[in-house]
Design goal:
By secondary structure, the chain is an alpha/beta fold. It is 37% helix and 23% strand. It is built from five helices and seven strands, in the order ααββββααβαββ. The protein has a seven-stranded mixed beta sheet.
Length: 171
Amino acid sequence: MLLSRRAKRMERHHARRGKASLNMVSLMDIFTILVFFLLFSSTEEVQVLPEPRDLELPESLAELKARESALIIVSADELRLDGVTVARLDEVLAEDAPGVPALASAFAARVAAGEELGPEITIMGDRELPYSLLKRIMSTCTAAEFERIALAVRQRGAVAVAGAASRQPAG
C-alpha cells in the first residue's frame, strides 16, 4: 500500500516524538508541597473543649473558636477547674461571699505550685446556671487577674466561645 506524502510525514513525526509520557517526579513534588501546605494551614491554636453529658450549653451565633486556656466547668453538682473538683455547688450557692473563695484558693494553689494560668479563662456552665453564680465566678476570675474571660456556648453543632470579655490592666 502506497502512503501519501502527508501520511509519510506524519509517520516520521510520530516516530521522532515517541509516545507521550508523564513526568512523575514533578507530580510528586507538587503533591508533597500541597500536603505540607494543608497540614500547616489547618493547625490553628484551637482548644477542643470537653462536652460533659450533664451540661446543656446555651446556644449562640458566636463564631470565635475556643483557644487554649484554663477551663472552669460548672455542672449541676460541682465546680471544676481543669477537670479537678474545686467545690460542691450547693456549698458555693450557700456562701454569702462576693466571689467564690474555693475557686480563689484553687487559683492561689496553682500559682504557688509554679503553674502559669495564662491571661485567659473559659467558663463552661449549664444554660440553667443562675446568673448570680456566674457573676460571682467571673468576679473571682477578675480578682485573679485574668485579662480575658470567655463563656463556652453551643454553636450550631460545635462548641465555640461567646463574647470573650476583656479587662484593661490597671495603670
